[in-house]
Write a structure and sequence with these properties.
Blueprint: H1 2-19, E1 20-23, E2 27-33, E3 36-41, E4 44-47, E5 53-60, E6 64-65, E7 69-74, E8 80-91, H2 94-99, H3 104-120, H4 125-130, H5 132-147, E9 152-164, H6 166-233, H7 237-257, H8 268-283
Antiparallel strand pairs: 1-4, 2-3, 2-5, 6-8, 7-8, 8-9
Helix pairs in contact: 3-5
Length: 284
């Protein structure tokens, strides 16, 4: 009797063991009942029907990355290039990923090859080089329409590199050098233009300052003439004549001291002045 009870207990434990399923967080399990898909088990503890239900597949739902794939393509301007893509995806519906497609990675790579060639064929080489993000988004959108039927979602499609042939690379280098030379010439011309503008401004400023100085000098001379005229009108003619004669005497003195002076010409009024002075001295 005890043996029977132990046997029944062992059978019950075995059935419970078969019925109890613990699914980890990173997986989804597919349950088949009598050979047909029944349901998908998410993370946690689940109970299945022993001998009727079985775990047909354990699908990893973590994000995955395909190996970097190089896709030969021809651009709109007939340049042959190789586009290297990095593709990341994850499974959102384990039943579709298992029952509708046999090899997900290979299927994605096949679809990508056609879509990349079609997208690159509508773009110039410069657009491919400068608009990688836009092209990546376009490729991702086109692929997503297909992959949704397989229960997967693309989380990232990135163009990591674009390789061109040696001749195209050499032509691009020549174009780059020409562009650098053009920029250097433009900058040099702009520098000369700026220097010429600064020099013109400096000359204009100098001319304005000289004109201002001449204007001030002319005003001073006019004021001096006016002052002399007023002095003459006010009876200061004798003082002015005295200053003029004093200046003439000083000039004669300076001419006499020059070593190369042999003949000295004296103004007539100076001689008259000297004569008048001498006559006054004799009369005394």
């Amino acid at each position: 009797m005890t043996t029977v009870v132990l046997a029944i207990l062992a059978i019950c434990l075995f059935v419970i063991f078969l019925s109890l399923k613990i699914v980890p967080q990173t997986e989804n399990w597919l349950v088949e009942r009598m050979g047909r898909y029944n349901r998908t088990l998410g993370a946690g503890v689940h109970i299945v029907t022993p001998f009727f239900d079985r775990i047909a597949h354990r699908e990893n739902i973590l994000e995955r990355q395909l190996p970097v794939k190089s896709v030969p393509s021809i651009t709109k301007d007939n340049v042959q290039i190789e586009v290297k893509l990095a593709i990341l995806y994850r499974v959102t519906d384990a039943s579709r990923a298992w029952y509708r497609i046999k090899n997900i990675d290979q299927a994605i790579e096949t679809i990508i090859t056609g879509i990349v060639r079609s997208t690159i064929g509508n773009s110039d080489l410069d657009e491919v080089q400068s608009n990688r993000r836009v092209l990546s988004d376009t490729i991702e959108t086109e692929i997503q329409h297909v992959t949704e039927e397989w229960g997967i979602v693309l989380t990232r499609v990135e163009i990591v590199d674009v390789e061109v042939d040696a001749e195209t690379r050499a032509a691009m280098q020549l174009q780059l050098n020409a562009e650098r030379t053009r920029r250097a010439l433009v900058r040099e011309a702009e520098g000369k233009k700026q220097a010429a503008n600064l020099a013109a401004d400096a000359e204009l400023y100098t001319a304005q300052q000289q004109a201002q100085a001449q204007r001030v000098l002319a005003d001073a001379q006019a004021y001096a003439v006016k002052a002399v005229a007023e002095a003459i009108n006010n009876g200061g003619e004798a003082a002015i004549n005295f200053d003029i004669k004093k200046i003439q005497a000083e000039a004669v003195k300076n001419l006499g001291t020059l070593p190369a002076s042999k003949i000295i010409l004296l103004p007539a009024d100076l001689l008259d002045t000297l004569s008048s002075v001498a006559s006054k001295l004799v009369s005394r």
